[in-house]
C-alpha cells in the first residue's frame, strides 16, 4: 500500500538517523496517514479516503466537498469526482 495522502499529496521523505556518537545513517520519515470514512451530504454517500491528519483537520473545518472544490480551484488534481 502506498504511503501517500490522497488530498495533500504528503509522502515519505528521507533524512538521517543521528546516534549519540553523531553517526548518521539514512532513514525514512513517514506521514501520519489514517484511513477515514467521510459522509458527504451533497451526494448523500460515504467516501473512504487515506488522508493525513492535517487533511482531516481541514476537512473538519470546511467539509470534504468544499475542501476538494478548493483544491480543484488551485489546480491540484485529487482524483476525487463528485
List the defining traits of the structure above.
single chain; 82 residues; alpha+beta; Ribosomal Protein L24e, Chain: T; two-stranded antiparallel ribbon; two-stranded antiparallel sheet; 34% strand; elongated
Can you walk through the features of this model?
- By secondary structure, the chain is of the alpha+beta class.
- The chain has a single domain (13-74), classed as Roll (Ribosomal Protein L24e, Chain: T).
- Helix content is 26%, strand content 34%.
- It contains two helices and four strands.
- Strands 1-2 form a two-stranded antiparallel ribbon. A two-stranded antiparallel ribbon has the order 3-4.
- The protein is elongated and about 55 Å long.
- The chain starts with 12 loop residues before the first strand and ends in an 8-residue tail after the last helix.
- The mean pLDDT is 93.
Mean pLDDT rating: 93
CATH topology category name: Ribosomal Protein L24e, Chain: T
Radius of gyration: 16 Å
Number of helices: 2
User: Could you give the order of strands across the largest sheet?
Assistant: 1-2
Give the helix proportion (percent range): 25-40%
CATH superfamily: Ribosomal protein L28/L24
Topology overview:
Blueprint: E1 13-18, E2 24-29, E3 33-40, E4 45-52, H1 53-62, H2 64-74
Antiparallel strand pairs: 1-2, 3-4
Helix pairs in contact: 1-2
Short précis:
By secondary structure, the protein is α+β, with helices and mostly antiparallel strands.
